[in-house]
């Protein structure tokens, strides 16, 4: 099985469409289709059923996926091991984190890093979805969930709290909610259910069943902006909300803690540029 063709097959399998696979791999859709056809010809097997809703793997496709995934794991491991021998303080380091962490911590870390190591280039991806470090979707990640993969190295960066906030204009117009009423008579801002299922069920331990969801977003920064704009009550990181003077904290005695972890694959621990980026991130968190 040709690895280049197998790589495209994996992308189609995971995305379900040629377009999605091509976008992920940054190639054109026609190339992805030709590579898939070449793989099917070489294996003398139909790997996908083409349906109106996308590409559905056949039984042969399922078997091919297992084999191609083993190839991917071996290729990724080889690349990580070679990177682990790299002592140059130059090149690309891919960092994955949320928009809020990137805005409040990573930008400062990169600013400091570039003073010392201007040849290190950061490729930053911001999402609340968790990147797969084993598949090399990132070299470093900052997560609020502690991973249990034994191949990953992690460092606890900080423990923070989320609290309830609303804008001064919202409080002036609607007043504060009463505890024990499940936000009756109030509007709320929350994450989309498809992004974080169950997030909007409670805010700081208070059920939200009687509240009206005014807006659902897929970004922590957008929750802060929506609450600051007076659209409703939101659950926000306390240390970030304090930078918005128009925000008022509701029920200050109620909060929910969360942890932040710096995570990298063990094979990259000795890569000089990755270590330099990790050290800069740790330094910023230690000073906060």
TrEMBL record:
Give start-end ranges for the coiled-coil region(s). 61-88
Question: What InterPro entries does UniProt report for this protein, alphabetically?
Answer: LysR-type_TF_proteobact-type (IPR058163), LysR_HTH_N (IPR000847), LysR_subst-bd (IPR005119), WH-like_DNA-bd_sf (IPR036388), WH_DNA-bd_sf (IPR036390)
SUPFAM superfamilies noted in UniProt: Periplasmic binding protein-like II, Winged helix' DNA-binding domain
Q: Which GO terms describe its biological process?
A: DNA-templated transcription
Question: At the top level of its lineage, which domain of life is listed?
Answer: Bacteria
Keyword Transit peptide assigned to the entry: answer is no
Q: Which GO terms describe its molecular function?
A: DNA-binding transcription factor activity; sequence-specific DNA binding
What residue stretches are annotated with the HTH lysR-type domain? 1-58
Q: What UniProt keywords are attached to this protein's entry?
A: Coiled coil, DNA-binding, Transcription, Transcription regulation
Family recorded in the similarity comment: Belongs to the LysR transcriptional regulatory family.
Q: What is this protein called?
A: HTH-type transcriptional regulator DmlR
What's the source species for this entry?
Achromobacter dolens
């Amino acid at each position: 099985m040709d690895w280049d063709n197998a790589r495209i097959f994996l992308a189609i399998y995971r995305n379900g469409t040629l377009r999605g696979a091509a976008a992920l791999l940054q190639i054109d859709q026609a190339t992805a289709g030709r590579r898939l056809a070449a793989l099917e010809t070489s294996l003398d097997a139909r790997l996908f059923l083409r349906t109106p809703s996308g590409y559905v793997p056949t039984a042969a496709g399922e078997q091919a996926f297992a084999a191609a995934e083993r190839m991917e794991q071996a290729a990724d491991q080889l690349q990580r091991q070679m990177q682990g021998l790299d002592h140059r303080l130059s090149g690309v380091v891919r960092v994955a984190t949320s928009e809020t962490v990137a805005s409040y911590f990573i930008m400062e870390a990169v600013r400091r890093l570039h003073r010392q190591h201007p040849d290190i280039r950061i490729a930053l991806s911001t999402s609340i979805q968790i990147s797969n470090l084993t598949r090399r979707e990132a070299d470093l990640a900052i997560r609020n969930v502690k991973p249990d993969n034994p191949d990953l190295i992690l460092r606890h960066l900080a423990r923070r709290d989320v609290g309830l906030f609303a804008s001064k204009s919202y409080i002036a117009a609607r007043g504060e909610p009463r505890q024990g009423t499940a936000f009756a008579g109030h509007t709320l801002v929350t994450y989309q259910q498809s992004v974080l299922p169950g997030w909007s069920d409670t805010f700081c331990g208070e059920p939200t069943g009687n509240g009206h969801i005014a807006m659902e977003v897929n970004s922590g920064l957008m929750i802060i902006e929506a609450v600051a704009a007076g659209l409703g009550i939101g659950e926000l990181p306390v240390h970030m909300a304090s930078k918005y003077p128009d925000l008022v904290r509701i029920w200050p005695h109620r909060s929910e803690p969360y942890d932040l972890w710096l995570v990298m694959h063990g094979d990259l621990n000795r890569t000089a540029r990755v270590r330099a980026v990790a050290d800069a991130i740790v330094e910023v968190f230690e000073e906060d």
